[in-house]
Structure formats: C-alpha cells, structure tokens
Records
---
Amino acid sequence: TAFVSIMRGCNNMCSFCVVPFTRGRERSRDAASIIKECTDLFNDGFREVTLLGQNVDSYQWMDPQNHTIISFAKLMEMVALISPDLRVRFSTSHPKDITDDVLFTMKKYDNICKYIHLPVQSGSTRILQMMNRTYTREWYIAKVDRIREILPGCGLSTDSITGFCSETEEDHQQTLSLFEYCEYDLAYMYFYSERPGTLAERRFEDDVPEEVKKRRLQEIVALHRIHSLKSMQRELGTIAKVLIEGDSKKSKEHWQGRSDHNKVVVFPKTGNLKKGDYADVFIESCTAGTLIGKCK
Ligand code: SF4
C-alpha cells in the first residue's frame, strides 16, 4: 500500500488549525504525474494507493492538451482505471466540498474503496461557525444521508474536537446526538488544545476547563465504542474482499489485511496466497478492532 500526495496546502481557514499558515495556499499536482506515479507503483507490486490532500474534493487541474478541468472525481476515475487490481482510497474530504460526482464515481468502480473520512469536528452549528468550518450541523447530516443513499453500507469515519472555546453542555449534547445519528465506524476524537498562531488563539478565549474537556471527550469516546463494535458486528456472516498486507501481528500462521470498508481482517493462512493478493474472507467473529474469519 502506498500514499500519493495529490495536492498541498489548504485554502480553508479553520480557526483551530495551523495548516493554512504552515503549508500555504492549496496547490493541485499535475494529474499526469499522479497517474504516472500510481502506474509505477502498481507495476512495482503495490496494490493500494491512498490519494492524499488536506481537502481532496477541491482538487483541480487544467489538462493542457484539451484545456479541460480535471476534478477530483475524474482523477479518481483515472487512477481506478489503471487496473481493477489496484485499490483506491482517499483522504481527507471536507463536508462542504464532497460532491455527488465523487460518490457516483466511487459507486461505479469496484476497486474504489467504499470508505469516507468526513471530519465533523463538532455537532453544534454555533461552534462550527466559530471554528470557521463553513457548514452547519444540518448540512453535514444531509451529506451523510446522501452518502448512505448513493453508497449504502459505505464506511464512515470522522474527527472531533471537544471543548472548543465557549462550548456549552448544550453544544456538547449536540455533538453526542450527531455521533448517535452518524454511528461512525471509526473516529479520531480529541479535546481542544490551543495552537499558537491560529485564528482561534487570536480571537477566542480557551475557556473550557480541562477537566470538563476530558469528561466530555470520555462521553464521546464511550458512545463511539458502542457504534464501532456495532459496525464490526454488522460484518459477521458477510464475505470481505481483503487485500493481504502481511503476517498478523499476533501469529505468523495468520494473514492480516484490510477490507473495502477499511477494517482490519485476520484469517488463517491457506493455499498459495501471498502479501499483495486479494482473498475472499468469510467473517466469523470480531473484537472491537479486528474482524476474524477464514478464507472462502
Ligand atoms: Fe484546512 Fe483541514 Fe486545517 Fe481546515 S482543518 S484549515 S480543512 S487543513
């Protein structure tokens, strides 16, 4: 598996973030050079590429030959067409920018993984405005609904920041209820920690006491644990297409890989399978972080 950077910098100005100051304005990379890099990786034996950018949905490149704009959806399609044996993932999407075009392109190609990382940060529209995220709670929920309509069963993950400046119990409850609605498969949850040089540092007071931030974070983590276990249990009895990444961490007698939905799958070694092969694995049991099965 490999990571391929498709753009640098970011044009958004989320008030908690240093990226706009440290990495500068958004610049998209030449599409032809991305396709060449992905093709070379495939020819060298790589079987999965993750297209990386701070905000991949705003990728844009002017094709110099026919003067057409290559959008992120188009770029993803071009990468998917390199080979059906090359898996394509991407990160990160911004809720204000992800388009139906991207979702329909994901649907069209089996080798584009059905998994989207869609950072929400907060479930409160008031806090989202202070964070300068440029979407509301309702907008975010509508995006999640659209993803589930076009791509039923698509894996969904998020980032959240608890205890941002002036966050009240009511704002926090809004985040909990949004987590309840979205039932994320995976979440990266943090409490707010002021970063020097950010807009938030200049504009707002970091006024939520640390013990309150930590307690709220624990509540979100506890809720998410229930959802992530449910998400693993939903896979029981299904067949996952797993890209073998190597030996399982616990046993050399088992392979470890990832499913289309980005879940870790472990199964006993059989036949002539090797690292980089795909295996259809029947999922028999699970822990909170791993699916366990056997080769079909
Ligand atoms: Fe850009 Fe992400 Fe930072 Fe917002 S949080 S400014 S989208 S890099």
---
Amino acid sequence: MIYASLSTLRAALAAKKISSVELARLFLDRIARMNARINAFITVDEEKTLAAATEADARLAAGNASPLTGIPLAQKDIFCAQGWRTTCASRMLENFIAPYDATVVTKLEREAGMVSLGKTNMDEFAMGSSNETSYFGAVKNPWDEARVPGGSSGGSAAAVAAGLTPVATGTDTGGSIRQPAALCGLTGVKPTYGIVSRYGMIAFASSLDQGGVIGRTAEDCALVLSAMAGFDEKDSTSLERPAEDYSRLMDAPFAGLTIGLPKEFFSEGCDAEVMTAVQAALAEYQKLGAKTVEVTLPNMRLSVPAYYVIAPAEASSNLSRFDGVRYGYRAPEYANLTEMYEKSRAQGFGAEVKRRILIGTYVLSHGYYDAYYLQAQRARRLIANDFAEAFKRCDVLLGPTSPGTAFALGEKRADPVEMYLSDIYTIAVNLAGLPALSLPCGFDAKGLPIGLQLIGNYFDEARVLAIAHVFQRATDWHTRHPACNL
Ligand code: GLN
C-alpha cells in the first residue's frame, strides 16, 4: 500500500479492502517514525487527518465518492488550509493559523475528498533550490540523507519518495516542482500558468507562481491535476477554460510524435551522467516511434538573469504585507511604529528572503527600473517567442531537468549564484508560462535519481502527461524506491 498507485488505492477503497481511516493511519505511522530523520513535514495533525478520513469513509459508503475520495495527500505549506498552521517555512508565519482554504485545498480536500496528512517543508517563501532556507531546518533526501531533496517543494518530494504519502502538492516559480521531483526520483508536473488557482497560495512571484503535483507516475499526477485545476473567479489570473480530464490521452496512440531537442539543453554545463541518461531516454522514445528535430532557444541564456530580476521584484512587493501589524511575526520590543516594522521584518525573514527583497526593491527603484526591470521583461518576451518558434516544428521539447543529481547539504549554500544555476533548465518555462514535467530516467553512479524534462505548448498538459506515461509503460525507473525504510 505504501507505494501503491492512486488507481490501486482507489480500487482498494472501493472494494472495502481498506478504509480511508486505515490508510491514513498507515501513513501517519510512517510519518511518526521517519519524519524526525527526513524533516519532510512541518505540521502533522492526526486528529484533523483522521476526521477527514472518517468523512471520506462515510462518502465512500454513501456512494458519492470521487475517484480520489479517501486517498491521502500532503500539502506544501504554502497553501492555506483552514484551521491548519500555514507557515511558508518562515519564522514570519511560524504561528499563523489560516482562516480560510486555498482553492487547491477546497478542490482536492473538500470537493474531491482527499485526506491531508499534513503540511510539507519547503524553502522559506519558496525561495531556493535545496530546501535549506526553511526556518524549520533542511529536508534530507531519502535516497541519501546527506544530500538535499531539491527545492523549494523539497518536503513534498521527500515525503513521496520516502513513502510518507502517495502524492503531494507543490508550487513552481522557477523549477520548484520539477527540480525536487528530479532529485528524488519522482514525477512532477507544473501546468500552464493560470490553470491552477493561486487563491490562498502564498505569493512569491505572482506572474510566475503555479501550483502542481508531485507523485510517482504521470498517471497519478494527471488524476490529481484534473481535480485541482479549473477556473477560479477568486484569482484574477485564472484562465476561463472548461474543466479538463488530464488523463484522457493516456492510452492514445503515440504515432507521429515529433520531439524537439533544444540545442541549448545539450551543450556544456550539464553533468555527463545526467546527459547519458537523458540520451538513453531519447533513444527509448525513438524506439517507441518518435521522430526528433533539433531546435534552438537562442535567448535561453537570458532566463536566469531575467528571472532573478523579475522574481525578486514581484517578491519585494508581495512580501511588503508582512509588516507585523495584522498577522505574522511581530518583534517583542520596539520604540515606535517604524522600529516595529524594521525589527519585525529583520527578525521574521531569513537571509535568502532578505536578499530577494533587497534585489527586488533595487531593480524597481526609480533610477534603475528601465535598466533592469524593463530589460528583464523584454528578455522574458524574447524567451517566450523562442518557445513559440520551436513549437512550430515539434510537439514537445525534451532535455534534462537539472544539470546535476542531488548535491550535498551545505554544498551550495555559500554561493547564491551557484544555487541559482540549479534551475538553468527549468526557469525559461516559467517565464513563458508553459506546462512542463519531470520524470525519472535513470541513476548516476552514486545511485542518485536523474530527471528528464518534457515541455509542452500552452494547454498541452494532457499530451505531455501521456508522453511521460508512454515512457513509464516501457521503463521501470519510476518503480525504484530509496532504501530508507525503517
Ligand atoms: N529556485 C528558484 C528560486 O529560488 C525557484 C523557486 C521556485 O520555483 N519556487 O527562486
């Protein structure tokens, strides 16, 4: 049951082989035994979880269950869930109890009937690629506990990899679903910008942030995405489109597929073992009948610099709401209002968050706006145009997700630029707003998982998931688990 697919869990629940309460207990037990080591969860609340599972059992018995009713999940601690502590891994929100549900929570838990096992650890305000900026401490990669799980959705990825939950939510601003999925041997999907509501998802960089799923397979991710996506009038950037079944193309024939290989994904900068695994995956697709074409994204080299202007600019504005007045951390001592703001923010935010606020405030300031922010927006447009050109010649783009496998805890902490480059293959996708996923495609000599990235055109997530599914039908990388069982 620990590593069972969602459809297996669904069948077991429907056949009454197991109840939702029993299933929740099974995972809560594992969390109780393993979380001290992995640190994947910030908050667990057995009472709330079991109450939700009891409700799910009643729904299953009454015959009005959805395909996901009674199945456990973990929520990244960036999603507000009513009555749950919601911290965004920051001291600023250490004791914040959310008074309302994010739309993602409403849809997955209240409507679909999934059962939350708790809130997962992450980089503070989703800023990071290693989960080391969390106020609640780093998360350990279940494949090697001396290494990072990736970030910022590192707790979600580690929880799924360690068998502490069948599936978890994540958010991806510059790679935070795909990169931890890659580093933990999982499948993670970031949909087209605007598909998943951002209402109640604590904002980092609003024009880039997008919710998604981390699971073991494309099939599992498609099921959950179908339940969490959809138009939401509470999010002004939510796209008004009919609901979709993202599993619908899973068994469609694979003939005639053209895979685009961006030259920039296959040049220097990528670890040799990662490249070998990506090439092997490509060969597998060719064996399955896919054609390939070389394409180019000439402006991709601008993506990391443009992102590190735009994302901090938006973050500096979004995070100005944390001022110690209405909610969040307030410094215990201060002489006047200005000092209260200063001390609350100085004590409540960690170093990486402060670095982003400083950069963001600088690039938006009157004298520098044109030189940095405007330039970055121009670069963003060029990058989006590159993708549009590429998609004239192919159906999907393929490349590595991350230039390397999981790195050691502490290895990149001292050098922010080195850390920022972990997202060199993922960031351009966010700037363009495209859907993309990462799926496991092999291991390096140390036994660490390697991720393959597939990028689709706008609204093509069903097809991208199906393309991943075809690979997972032909290979077994996604069936390997770390040997971290207790
Ligand atoms: N690693 C990137 C950053 O630090 C992306 C994070 C994310 O996608 N949330 O900003």
---
Amino acid sequence: MPKKDLISVGNLSPQEVEEIFLLTDKLKADAADFKSALAGKTLALIFQKPSNRTRVSFDVGMYQLGGNSVYLSPGEINLGVRESISDAAKTLSRYVDGIVLRTFEHKNVLELAKYAEVPVINGLSDFSHPCQALADIYTIREKLGALKGKTLAYVGDGNNVCNSLLYACARVSLNMNTATPKGYEPDGAVFESARATAFGCGAKLQLTHSPQEAVAGVDVIYTDVWASMGQEKEAAKREKAFKDFQVNAKLLKLAKKGALIMHCLPAHRGKEITEDVIDGKNSVVFDQAENRLHVQKAVLIKLLGNRNGR
Ligand code: CP
Ligand code: NVA
C-alpha cells in the first residue's frame, strides 16, 4: 500500500476530512480503546521553528497511542545544511514510522515527503498549517453542530493558517469571509481552488478589506498573529498595516450574539486580539489547543496504523 502524507488540507477530500472527525469522536469518547493503536511505532518530530502545541500534542498523542516520538531540534538534523533533505528523509525512514516537519519554506515539506518512505505530516510551513485547521473545524463542529449555512470570519493576515482554513471550510461546507489589509491576502491559487470546492459543497468564500463587513452576523471570528514566525523583522511595518484589524469588543458587537472567538495561539494580546475578547466567555482557544491532540491522534492512526505490517 503506498504511504499517505498530510501536507495540506487541499490534498484531502471532504470525505477524508469527515473520516478524520469521526475517528476523533471515537478517540475523545474512549481514549483507552486506542491505547495500543500505534504500539511499537515511532514518530520523528523535526522542528526548525519553536512550538508548544504542535510539539507537545504530537509527543503526548504518540504516547497515548502506545508509541513514542523522537524530537529533533533545529540544530540536530540541520535539514538541508548538515545533509540534504533527501538523505535525511531516506535515513529516518529506516528508523521511524512517520515524520512531522515544522519548517519555513513549504517546498521543504514536499521534498521530505517525496524522499521519505514513511508518512510525512506538515507541522506548519510558511504556506500551510493543516493540523491546526482540522482541529479548528473539529472544534467548531463540536460547538455549533451542523456547519452548513454557518459562517466563519477570518480577520488579519492571509497566512499559513488562513490558507489552511480556506481549504478546510470549503470541505465542510462552512462559509468563510476573509478580511485582510491590501497586500496581505491569502494565496491566490489556494483561494480559487478552495472557492471551487466550496461552490461544489454549497458554501461561499469571500475576500474583503473590511473587518466590519467580514464579521457582520457571523457565527465564528478567527484571528492569528500579524507577524508569523520568520517575519519578526517586519513586525513594526505589519503593526501599522494591521492596526484596523484588531479583534476587539467593538468588532465583536457586529457578529452574531455568542459568536465563537478563535485563535490558533500563540497570541499577541493587545495586538491582533484584545485581552477581554480572548479571555471572554465565547473564546474557545484552549478547546482548539486541546483538539490538536485528539485530531492529530486520528491522523496518526490513519497514516501510521497497520502499514506494511510494521
Ligand atoms: N498553534 C500552534 O501550532 O502552536 P505552536 O506554534 O505552539 O505549535
Ligand atoms: N501564523 C503563525 C501560526 C503559529 C501557529 C506562524 O506561522 O507563526
């Protein structure tokens, strides 16, 4: 059986997304049933950027499924510098059953997946963050039930998280309004492809430069940092460009009463989101963080379980 990777939500069909969620439901309902699901399997975690949620949830997830993980910090593998990505991929494939990579350029994930003989999971690249978007949609599904006809407003930078949310919303028939400053829109090809999928699923994706327009009457408001990891030098410039895109109490008033507040974390409180809003009663940011664990366990079982009898 050929190996399967998780590189982008764009590579998943709506059915595959639903299957991941159904398995996540089972994992949440009875984690003990799965305590040997990945017995004897090992996951390598190659991180070229810092992480709390992604690293810990994959590490703990493997442990809870009866397997284990090996964390490789930026200095250890030194991917592409100490040795080529292809040599590292082929070597690791002789030791481990799956690889998570958090990196800068998305092409690094594609190259690792090309040469690895074991499944590769994108743990965040500059282009996408699929595990985040899957956990986010799973969280909305838990809180709101049926997604068809509901709308998520993403306010802020058209970054990796935004790209993945576009793909994910399209696959679960959730409408998505994206508001960014001019010049900070999501990837054009992602938007067009997601819009076509959404159309087929009866959902609508819209782009605007007005946060007020994006959040009017919506069920969910989502934001992320204005400067992502690797963009620290642009922070001051971005702060100016995004100053009218803060998720605050005034903006929240325009959404549906009780609208969910979401953020992938880490958050810069007082910048993209105010303290009162992120700590408010409608904030589900820690449910999102928790669901990273459950959804990724489902992904790990799907990709690493019962491959080649190993
Ligand atoms: N949301 C997320 O991926 O968090 P970390 O950067 O801490 O892994
Ligand atoms: N857009 C952010 C997400 C962090 C989880 C970044 O790439 O830094």
